[in-house]
Design brief:
aromatic amino acid biosynthesis; TIM Barrel; binds the ligand O=C(O)c1ccccc1NCC(=O)[C@H](O)[C@H](O)COP(=O)(O)O; two-stranded antiparallel sheet; 8-stranded parallel barrel; alpha/beta; 12 helices
C-alpha cells in the first residue's frame, strides 16, 4: 500500500468515527456557519496580489517533523504581515500533526485573508465541518476521488459558499475535473512516491483553460521559480516547508515575497 492509500484508509475510519460522535446539526449551528466565506479567487486575481498561499505544516510523511515549536497565532500574524494571498492550514492529525483547532484559532485572529482547510476530503461531513470551523476553501484531491465524488463534493462546497482548490498531479487526474472557472492546483509532489518535479506544473499548465486559475503546489523554495511560473500563467503558489522549516515562518515568507521579481 502506498502512503496516499494509507492516508485515505485511515481518514475514512477517522471520519466514520467522527460521524458517530458529532451531529451535523450541531456543526450547522456554529457561529462560523453564518459568516460569508472569503474568496480565494478574488484574492489571487486582485491587483498586486502576491499569489502566495502560505501553509501551516508541522510535519509530513515525506519530511517528518518540520516545525513543532511555531504557534498558529504567530505564524498567522507573520503570514498576514507578509501579505499572503491566503493561508493553508493542514488539519490532518495522524500524518501531519494538524487539527481543526488551528483553523479556528487562525480564523479568530483574522477575517481578511482566505483560509484553505487542507485535508484529505473523503466525505461530505468534512466539508460541512470546514465551514463550521471558519474555513473559506477546501481541497479536493483528484488522485483519491472519483469523477462523481469530485463533482458532488464540489457542488456541496459551492452550496455552502465555500470555494474548492482541485488538486491534480497528471493528465489522467485533470481529466476527472470539469474545467470551467475552477481553481486548479498542480501538485509537483507525487503523493505516492514523494518525488517532487516542477515539470508537472509546466507540462499541465497548457492543458488548463484560461477560465481557470492555476496554482502550483509543493517544492517551491526559490523566488525566481515563482517569477518563472508566472510566465506559464500561474497566479497562485502554495508553499509550506520552505517557510515552516525556519524559526520564524512569517519572516521567511516576508523575505521570500520581497524577492519575487
Ligand atoms: O508533504 C507531504 O509529504 C505529503 C505527503 C503525502 C500527501 C500530501 C503531502 N503534502 C501535502 C501538500 O500538498 C503540501 O503540504 C503542500 O503542497 C506544500 O508543499 P511544500 O511547500 O513542499 O511543503
Amino acid at each position: 500500500m502506498n502512503i496516499l492509500d494509507k492516508i485515505i484508509a485511515h481518514k475514512k475510519q477517522e471520519v466514520a468515527q467522527l460521524r458517530k460522535e458529532v451531529q451535523i446539526e450541531k456543526l450547522v449551528k456554529s457561529p462560523n456557519f453564518q459568516r460569508t466565506p472569503l474568496s480565494l479567487k478574488k484574492s489571487l486575481l486582485s491587483i498586486g496580489s502576491t499569489g502566495i498561499i502560505a501553509e501551516f505544516k508541522r510535519q509530513s510523511p515525506s519530511k517528518g517533523i518540520i516545525n513543532d515549536k511555531a504557534t498558529i497565532e504567530d505564524v498567522t500574524n507573520g503570514y498576514l504581515d507578509a501579505k499572503v494571498a491566503a493561508q493553508s492550514i493542514l488539519t490532518d492529525a495522524h500524518f501531519f500533526g494538524g487539527n481543526i483547532l488551528d483553523v479556528m484559532k487562525a480564523r479568530a485572529i483574522q477575517d481578511t485573508t482566505p483560509i484553505l482547510r487542507k485535508d484529505f476530503i473523503v466525505d461530505g461531513f468534512q466539508i460541512v465541518e470546514a465551514k463550521a470551523i471558519g474555513a473559506d476553501v477546501i481541497l479536493l484531491i483528484a488522485a483519491c476521488l472519483t469523477k462523481e465524488e469530485l463533482k458532488n463534493y464540489g457542488k456541496l462546497a459551492a452550496d455552502l459558499g465555500l470555494e474548492v482548490l482541485y488538486e491534480v498531479h497528471n493528465q489522467e487526474e485533470l481529466d476527472k475535473i470539469e474545467l470551467d472557472n475552477k481553481i486548479i492546483g498542480i501538485n509537483n509532489r507525487n503523493l505516492k512516491t514523494f518525488e517532487v518535479d516542477l515539470e508537472h506544473s509546466i507540462e499541465l499548465a497548457s492543458k488548463i483553460p484560461d477560465s481557470c486559475i492555476k496554482v502550483s503546489e509543493s517544492g517551491l523554495n526559490d523566488p525566481r521559480v515563482i517569477t518563472g511560473l508566472k510566465e506559464y500563467g500561474f497566479q497562485g503558489f502554495l508553499i509550506g516547508e520552505n517557510f515552516m522549516k525556519t524559526e520564524n515562518p512569517g519572516q521567511a515568507c516576508k523575505e521570500f515575497i520581497d524577492q519575487i521579481g
